Amino acid sequence: MKTNPLRTCIVCKSELPKSKLLRLVRINNCVQCDFSYKLSGRGAYVCPQIGCIKGILKKGILDKHLKLDVATKEASNILAYLTEYIKQRNDEQIKPA
Ligand SMILES: [Zn+2]
């Protein structure tokens, strides 16, 4: 039986198969994007949509989930990186939740 575990976007709370979400993981007090879904560490999932990506930095949602103070500079780096990533991935036609 094939399992397709659902994960919840920390911003819009949509439940989607893990593979449809982006994983952010806390490693050594830094935030990394885990495209392999294999990095160990405290992780958070977010929809590959601009609205949700921006949302993770609002109200400290990401900080809360990763139990980490995400520095503003680091946060804007993540934002820029993910925004670019989503642009490239748009061909895949990921359906908004
Ligand atoms: Zn979302």
From TrEMBL:
Q: Which InterPro entries match?
A: YlxR, YlxR-like_sf, YlxR_dom
Listed Pfam families:
YlxR
Q: Any idea where the YlxR domain is?
A: 7-74
Q: Which residues cross the membrane?
A: none
* PANTHER family from the UniProt entry: BLL0784 PROTEIN, YLXR DOMAIN-CONTAINING PROTEIN
Q: What is this protein called?
A: YlxR domain-containing protein
Q: Which organism is it from?
A: Psychracetigena formicireducens
